[in-house]
Amino acid sequence: VLEQIDWSQVNWARGQFALTAMFHWIFVPLTLGLSFLLAFFESLYVKTGNETWKRITKFWMSLFAVNFTIGIATGLILEFEFGTNWANYSWMVGDIFGAPLAAEGIFAFFIEATFFAVMFFGWNRVSKGFHLFSTWMVAIGSNLSALWILVANGWMQYPVGMAFNPETARFEMENFWQVLFSPTAIGKFTHATSSGFLLGSLFVVSISAWFLLKKRHTDMAKKSMVVASVFGLLASAFVIFTGDEAAYTSARVQPMKLAAMEGLYKGETNAGLVMLGILDPTHLPGEDDDPFLFDVKIPGVLTLLANRELGTFVPGVDDIVYGNEALGIMSTRDKINQGRAAIKALGEFKNALNEAQARVALNEFNKYKEFLGYGYLTSPEQAVPPVGLTFYSFHIMVMLGFLFPVIFLGVLFFLFRKTLEKQTWFLRVAVLSLPLGYVAQETGWIVAEVGRQPWAIQGLLPVGVAISDLTTGTVQLTFFMFLTLFTVLLIAGIRIMTRQIALGPEE
Amino acid sequence: MFGQLAHSQLQELWWIVVSLVGSLFVFMTFVQGGQSLLGTLAKTDRQKSLILNSLGRKWELTYTTLVLFGGAFFAAFPKFYATSFGGAYWVWILILFTFTLQAVSYEFRRKEGNLLGPRVYETFLFINGALGILLIGAAVGTFFTGSHFQINVFNLGSWKHPLRGLEAAMVPFNLAMGLLLVFLSRTLGAMYLVNNIRHAAIEKKSRAAAFRNFLYLVPFLLYILYSLLTMQGFALDPATGAISLEKGKYFANLMAMPVVMLLLIAGILLIATGAVVTGYTNKRLGIWLAGPGTVCTCLALFFLAGFNNTPFYPSVFDPQSSLTIYNASSSHYTLTAMAYIALAVPFVLAYIAWVWRIMDRKKLDVSEFEGEAAKELY
């Protein structure tokens, strides 16, 4: 299809998408979590009639608005970037990928947009009950939009419910329900939204802790913290549970990603889970030396995580790249050869002069089509994602994931003992935990997306084929345009929020 | 239900859906029109604030409609999404930029610590209202005048003009389409403000602006209508799939589809009536005439561009590469599934209308600046 892939353009386009997605994801998880917290606060106001809860709701709502607006602004960029920078992708999988995007617009965005206006400007225009309903609708709408886009992302990780149509030279949907209810789609949705709940809770806890340290708005801060800590604790448990589920799914559908997450080069029976480790940056796939300079492992746990059964085998990078006959794992070289045969047959089918020729070519194509995407790879090692980035991101995310529930528990414990305001050291940790929450969010997506390179669509479409017909210079130029824009927006957004926090809620 | 339809019927159904979303978007650009009129209509900070708060309660819906338009095009006609977005790169990137600037401007403008100061955010809103709409109009113009691209046997496109889409803005027809949309958005914006705000000075200026901007759009509208009736267009031979240039193609389309002619005439009349009613009476219903009028007119344009065996995204570089609703669409299965999803659209429109009614029951006036709600204003 593409004789020459301009890798510098591919990498700039990847960089641009990563930039936009990571910037977008600074704002989205807070929207997902804080929207529900607003709904809880306002429900308490409506139920108790206590004006303090109304002031609490309004204070967090003013921060929510700033965050929400940047999330919306960057969401549109992401949607358009599929077309502008990944045009071939848009054609080759648009038949499947476009549907959830449109559904997101119809089912979710209008709910958000309509009820957001009521939530902000409706305090004196609609009844108390309708206002509360609107706040809940914003929370539900936001999380519904996450559902659809994560279904789309889940499909990229584990393409199901479709088939390649050689006539149109694209993948076409065959089963909408399989796409919607694929285990990766559900896994992505539950893990991402619950991590959003966690971040929202952390946001409230952290800023409230700052108020307590400053001895300002202490009553409201403590009230906010009770609700946020309970929500955050529940969310943390769910994050851990769905994270475990995600690792199990990865082992089934993206074993290479799991191997990279754990820095596992040589597969093992009863493989151990790395608690801490430093990878040898010079280690290459296929080499026999130890990939770790230093590591602490718990024996058998990786096998349990991946297969939920002791005595089973977890394949490593080398098993997947070079094959493992004993275990029936096909080598990437064989897949590449089959993929190339499929691409050749597709070309012959497209250029066939008569029906007989076309039929022969099509039969040939059907024989090898399963590995079509591999035909674009130039070497088996290309199928290996950046192991270091994936490994470190994964371990940072997991460690932080176990730290946050401790903070929520601590808040509840000290609140129960009525000594929270005196725990200066603990409150400082709570304040500092917020940036860590963002780190956990971003590293999570690095695991998900870097860990599946070089694939835009797992096993079917490498990023190099998915791009638009552009020059490197063009993509560089827009990269820096977006970088400048995002930097300005981020600085302005943070400044506005910190001013609002410094001002604090009305007393 | 939809599964029984032929692929071509689903493609036509989806062209109607996409056209409807696009037309509703143009109606909703009254927000952008209001933004570009801000300097004209508001003399004091308070007037400015009143106008921006009136528009600020609707901007997200316009924005969301644009997102849905993109999403629906992606889902139903992915080849257009791939060819145009990846090809006419700079037009779309610039449009994108102006809308991103808009999205933060309402919220950031009056906030302490906003880094750039209120003036800059107001300029962003103006840029979105003027340049953003102009470029969208120019892009729509290429539905008739064509673009420079080629599609290979694998249906992958490549752009053949070095300006990557910006060349569209240099074709008089496209430019006229852009300016038409700009003045139309201003006409609608002024009418919306007349309806939504209770403030004598703003109302007086808005009424005048509505009629004046309508007058500005007339020459561009006439030029476009004249061009459409006389220009040659691209025609698809349904038997062979070949595409050729045909004299008076859009005139022929109009004759072949009386409903479209009716939509066009009714639409233009409604817009004109709205302008006259707003400019010369004290009624506030102009937006409810010109708004639906805009939807009818835009529907007519979309139908002229895509129906009656007409490629809706023609290539002047290689006519055989032109995109039709038949060769650019998703599969039968996807269009069917999407049609079920689209059944939700009437419900969406219904709850939006319902919520708006509740929210707009009390119109905006200076009392907004008093009391506890004042702090939350944009």
Question: What would you say this structure looks like, in words?
Answer:
The complex is a heterodimer of chains A (507) and B (378). Chain A is mainly alpha-helical and 507 residues long. Chain A contains 16 helices and eight strands. In chain A, helix 6 packs antiparallel against helix 14. Chain B is mainly alpha-helical and 378 residues long. Chain B has helices at 7-28, 30-41, 45-56, 59-76, 78-87, 89-108, 118-145, 172-196, 200-230, 249-256, 258-280, 286-306, 332-342, 345-359; strands spanning 149-151, 157-159, 233-236, 243-246. In chain B, the strands form two sheets. In chain B, strands 1-2 form a two-stranded antiparallel ribbon. Chain B has a two-stranded antiparallel ribbon with strand order 3-4. In chain B, strand 1 (149-151) and strand 2 (157-159) form a beta hairpin. In chain B, 58% of the residues are buried. Chains A and B meet through helix 2, helix 3, strand 2 and helix 16 of A and helix 4, helix 5, helix 6, strand 2 and helix 13 of B.
In short:
Chain A has 507 residues and is mainly alpha-helical. Chain A has helices spanning 7-48, 51-85, 87-121, 128-157, 176-180, 183-214, 218-253, 255-262, 301-307, 317-322, 332-350, 355-368, 387-416, 424-450, 463-466, 472-503; strands at residues 162-165, 170-173, 268-269, 273-279, 292-298, 313-314, 455-457, 461-462. Chain A is built from 16 helices and eight strands.
